[in-house]
C-alpha cells in the first residue's frame, strides 16, 4: 500500500517503522540544505529527522518513511500526534477567535483553563494560574512570584536540572555548561545543591529514616556558609530530572525537601514541565511522592503540542498585584482550546492508566534486556518516563543514531542516558516493537565499534 493512501488517523496504525529510502532521503536532504543556510546555528539538532505528519505514536517524514516515536516531540504530544479531539478543538477555536490578549481583557477560555488546572492541581487548597507560551516563561513567572511573595532574593536549584534557556531559567539550569557558556553574567542570587541520591558526587544516597546527605548539604553547608535561609525565596526542583538524565530521586527525598522549606519559610517550586501531565501515570509526578508544592510549573504536554505553559500557585501565595506580570500571547485562545481537549482526553480515554500499563511493559522489557546486555547500566523511571543508562556519552550517541537508522525515534539526555518519553497513547504492541528495535540498535552501535 502506498503511504499516500493512508489517512492521517490510519497512520497511527500503520506498520512502524517502515523505511523506504536511505536516511536522509532526497526530500529530507533538500530541507537540511535550506535549513543549514538560513536557520540559527544554535539549534541543537540531534539526527536528520524531517517530520511531515504524525498520528498517535507514528510519524512520517517528508520522504514517506514511517517512524515509531518514543520522543513525542520531546515529551510534548501527550495525547499522541494530532489526536482528533485536540485537532477539532483547535480548528473550532481558530475559526471563532485566534487571539485577544488575556493580560488586558477577559478571555473566557483563559479562566476556563485556569479553573481546570485548579481541579487537577496537586495542591489541597485553591490555586491560581498564570498562563505562558512555554516552559521557560512559566519558570520565569515562578521566580518572579517567589521573590515578590516572600520579599526574599535568593533561589536554590539543583545540579543536573533543566529549567529552560531564558536568562532567569538558564540561571537555574545546571545540566550542561554549554547552556551557560558565553552568556554570563547570569542572574545573581542563584545557588545550586546536589540532587536526590547525590550520585554525581558519589555521596552515600541516605534514606528517609537516616536523612539524605544532599538535604544536609543545603542545611549544613549552604545555609551556614553561603546564604541565610531567611533570604531564600524558593527552591526550584524537578520531581524527576528530565534533560539531566531521567533520574528519579530516592523515596522520601522530596518530602525531606518540603520539610526543609517549611522549617525556613521557603517556597517549594516543582517544575513539572517534563514529568507532568500524565507522563508518570499520575497527572503530576509529585502525586507519587506525597508532597504539595507551593508553585507548580507546567508546559510541554499540557496542550498536546500547542504552545502553552502554566505557573500554578497556591492562592494565598499569588500575592502580586495588578500590572506586576503579564504577557501578550500567554494563554492564547487556540492553545487554551488544545489544553482543555488534552485534559478531557487524558481523563476520558484513561491515558494515565494506559501510561502506567504500557510503561510497565517497556520498563520490564528493558530490565530483561539489561540482563542480556551488560552495556545497559541502569533502567529507571515511572510509567512513560524511562531512562536507559549506557556506559558513556559516545555509546549513547551511537545508540540514538542507530535507533534512528532503524526507524525508532529516541533521544539522549544527561551524560549517557537514552530517554523514552512516548505519547500517553503508546500501545503495548508498539512497546514490544520498540524493545526489539532498541536491542538491534544496541547491537548496531556495538558492531560499529562504540
Ligand atoms: N523545565 C523543564 C523540566 C523542561 O524539561 C523544559 C524543557 O525541556 C523547560 C523547563 C523549558 O521549557 P521550554 O523549552 O518550553 O521553554
How would you describe this protein?
- With 450 residues, the chain is an alpha/beta fold.
- The protein has 2 domains: 3-82 and 350-449, Aspartate Aminotransferase, domain 1, CATH 3.90.1150.10; 87-348, Aspartate Aminotransferase, domain 2 (3-Layer(aba) Sandwich), CATH 3.40.640.
- 37% of the residues lie in helices and 15% in strands.
- It has 13 helices and 15 strands.
- The protein has helices spanning 8-11, 26-38, 72-75, 84-96, 108-120, 135-150, 167-172, 213-226, 253-264, 333-348, 351-372, 393-405, 428-447; strands at residues 51-55, 58-61, 66-69, 127-132, 154-158, 190-193, 232-237, 267-271, 295-298, 309-314, 378-382, 385-389, 408-409, 411-413, 417-420.
- The strands form 3 sheets. A 7-stranded mixed sheet has the order 4-10-9-8-7-5-6, with helices on both faces. A 4-stranded mixed sheet has the order 1-2-3-13.
- The two termini are 37 Å apart.
- Residues 134-136, 139, 162-164, 238, 242-243, 271, 273-274, 299 line the site of pyridoxal-5'-phosphate.
For the record, the CATH class of the largest domain is Alpha Beta
Biggest sheet strand order reads: 4-10-9-8-7-5-6
N→C terminal distance: 37 Å
- Overall radius of gyration: 22 Å
The CATH superfamily name of the largest domain is: Type I PLP-dependent aspartate aminotransferase-like (Major domain)
Q: How many domains make up the coordinates?
A: 2
Bound molecules: pyridoxal-5'-phosphate
| CATH architecture identity of the largest domain | 3-Layer(aba) Sandwich
How many runs of DSSP E, i.e. beta strands?
A: 15
Question: Biggest sheet, open or closed, and with what strands and sense?
Answer: 7 strands, mixed
Indicate the low-confidence ranges by residue numbers.
none
Number of helices: 13
- Overall structural class, as computed from helix and strand content, comes to alpha/beta
Helix content: 25-40%
| Mean pLDDT metric | 96
The fold-level CATH name of the largest domain is Aspartate Aminotransferase, domain 2
* Series of secondary-structure elements, N-terminal to C-terminal: HHEEEHHHEHEHEHEHEEEHHEEHEEEH
Strand portion, in percent? Answer: 15-25%
Shape: globular
